[in-house]
Amino acid sequence: MVPCDFYLFGKMHLPMKGKRYADVEYIQKSSTGILAAMPGNELKHSFGMLLDRAVLKQKETILKKII
To answer: Which element (helix H / strand E) includes 67?
Structure first.
């Protein structure tokens, strides 16, 4: 996982923190299990936060080009 995944899925950070995974399949199974257990409204909120962050970053980039 990369840091932006932890930002998007903050609830995934704690269960996965400090663990070593033998292969990609095990990482996928672990993260899929965590996501499946997450209530839909929390998942929707996480995606909303990512979208807000992306829009803010885009606005900052545009302002830097103007100034």
So the answer is: none
Give pTM, 2 decimals: 0.54
Token duo for residue 52: 């807000």
Helix intervals (H) in 1-67 = 3-8, 10-16, 24-37, 40-66
Q: Which of 52, 39, 60 is nearest to 8 (CA)?
A: 52
Q: Quote the radius of gyration of the chain (alpha carbons, Å).
A: 15
Residues 6+ apart with CB under 8 A from 33: none
pLDDT score of 33 more than 70? yes
